[in-house]
Amino acid sequence: SDVCSSDLEQIKRIGCSIDYEDEWFTMNESYQRAVRETFVDWWDAGYVYRGNRIINWCPRCKTALADDEVEHEDLAGHLWHIAYPLVEPKGELTHAIIATTRPETMLGDVAIAVNPKDERYQDLIGTMVTLPLVGRQIPIVADDYVDIDFGTGMVKITPAHDPNDFEVGERHSLEKINVMSDDAYINELGGAYAGLDRFEAREAIVADLEKQGFLVEVEDHEHAVGHCYRCHTVVEPWLSDQWFVDMQRLVEPAIEVVKSGEVEFHPQRFAKTYLSWMENIRNWCISRQLWWGHRIPVFYCDECGEMVASKTDLTVCPKCGAPVRQDEDVLDTWFSSQLWPFAVFGWPEKSEELSYFYPTSVLSTARDIINLWVARMIVSGMYFMDGKVPFKDVIIHPTVLDKLGRRMSKSLGNGVDPIELIDEYGADAMRFGLLVQVTGSQDMKFDREKLGIYRNFANKIWNASRFVLMNCEDYTPSEPKPTTVADRWILSRLARLTQDVDKNFDNYEFGEMTRVLYDFFWNEFCNWYIELSKGRFGGTAEERASAQSVLMYVLDQSLRLLHPIMPFITEEIWQNLPVDEGKKAASLMIAEWPSEEALREYIDEEAERSIECVKATVSAARSVRARYGISPKETLAMVVSAEELSLVNILEVEAEFIAKLANLSTFRVGVNEDKPAQS
Question: 375, 377, 374: which is closest to 358 by C-alpha?
Answer without folding.
Answer: 377
